[in-house]
Structures are given as structure tokens and as C-alpha cells.
Amino acid sequence: xxxxxxxxxxxDFPQPGIVFKDITPVLADPVAFAEVIAALSEDIKxxxxxxxxxxxxxxxxxxxxVAHELGVGFVPYxxxxxxxxxxxxxxxxxxxxxxxxxxxxxxxxxxxxxxxxDDVLATGGTAVAAGQLTEKLGGAVVGxxxxxxxxxxxxxxxxxxxxxxxxxSY
Length: 170
What we know:
By secondary structure, the protein is of the alpha/beta class. It is built from five helices and nine strands; from the N terminus they run αββααβαββββαββ. The chain has helices spanning 2-6, 24-28, 30-45, 58-70, 125-136, and strands at residues 8-11, 19-22, 51-55, 73-79, 87-94, 97-104, 113-121, 140-149, 164-169. The strands form two sheets. Strands 5-6-4-3-7-8-9 form a seven-stranded mixed sheet, sandwiched between helices. Strands 1-2 form a two-stranded antiparallel ribbon.
């Protein structure tokens, strides 16, 4: 996969001790980006989703084109205070703090099959919160898909029993 050759490590970002996986070179390369979207779409389509959820912000970059590719709707889950309509929220822990993810109260219809997409699976806190938020809205989480998995952080264990797609693992 060409994308694997383009990811660069940025040490001590956003704080000392964190090695950030910079995907911006992948996004800038149309061949590599298309390859990633095609691979995610191919794996996700077997789950027959009704809607793709993308988690702010880099989940939007992958989730929206995957939804387009599959011909299904896209729902953005945003950070606190960014949505204009009535919201529902879920707090979660990050590898370096806490945060809240929010959705409009009508973002997911009861019974919809949902795949949650994000750029990186790290500790799993964001993905778990997105799953909880989806279930609060009445949706059925049928899978999670990530471009990159930081396997040493063991986020996959928080999603035990769930269908998980990752394209690259570090």
C-alpha cells in the first residue's frame, strides 16, 4: 500500500512522549488516498451499513468518501459545542486527556446499521464513545474501520466482540 510509505512520525506531538502519525502526505497524494478509500470501502461494504459515522476531525476525511463510495449517508460526530441543532453527547478518555463527542439528536434513525470510521485506533476511547452515542440514538453498530491502528496501545481490547477493520498497524 503506497500510503504506508508516506506516513511520517512526528515525535513529541501534541505533547512530549507521543509519536504522532502524520497522514497529511497520504491525503495530498491522490493515488495513495484513493487506495485507502477503496480498501476501507471494500471491507466495509460486506457489513451492509445504512450510514457511515465519521469522528471529528480526521474521521471526516475517510468517512465521507467511504459513504459516497458505498452510496450511503454520512453523519459527523463532532467535538463539544460545534453542532447547531439539539445534541446528545458522550464523554470519553483520550490517551492524553478527556473529551466529549456529540451528534444531532436525529442523526441516526433507530435500527440503522452503522459503521464508525476514524483515522486512528489508539486507546479505543473515542471509538467506544462513538459506539455508545450511536446506541443511545438507537442505531446498531455493525463495525468500526480505521486507517491506522496503534496496536501497542491495545485499543482493540475495548472493542472486543466488534467487527474491526484496520489497514495499517504499528
